[in-house]
Amino acid sequence: MALFIVESEIPQISNDMMLVIPRHIRVIQQLMADEIVLTYAVSSDRKKWWCHVKADDENEVMDILAQMPIMPFLRPEIHALLIYNHAEYNLPKFSLN
To answer: Which of 63, 65, 75, 68 is nearest to 22 (CA)?
Structure first.
């Protein structure tokens, strides 16, 4: 399994885009719960977004992105990552057992 970063400019938000945002948020939450999407971010000016996706290849990333209701409004760029370091990965997972 590889890791990809996906980014896109966000166009002027239209009424049609606003209508899909609640469903889009639910899809993102489920993909994060399934550990397919690891991070999701939108810039404070709402002009750009990023997410980290776990997938076997770029085609699988496109299939995952196709589940996101907001995709028809965006032009995502997909980049395979060689190195991904995150503070959460450096901490041991705690178990209550």
So the answer is: 68
* Tokens linked to 14: 């239209």
CA distance 71 to 78: 13
pLDDT attached to residue 10: 96
Question: Is pLDDT larger for residue 31 or for residue 85?
Answer: 31
Q: What predicted TM-score, i.e. pTM, was given to this entire model?
A: 0.84
3-state secondary structure the chain: CEEEEEEEECCCCCHHHHHHHHHHHHHHHHHHHCCCEEEEEECCCCCEEEEEEEECCHHHHHHHHHCCCCHHHCCCEEEECCCCCCHHHHCCCCCCC
Backbone angles phi and psi of 88, in degrees to 5? -60, -35
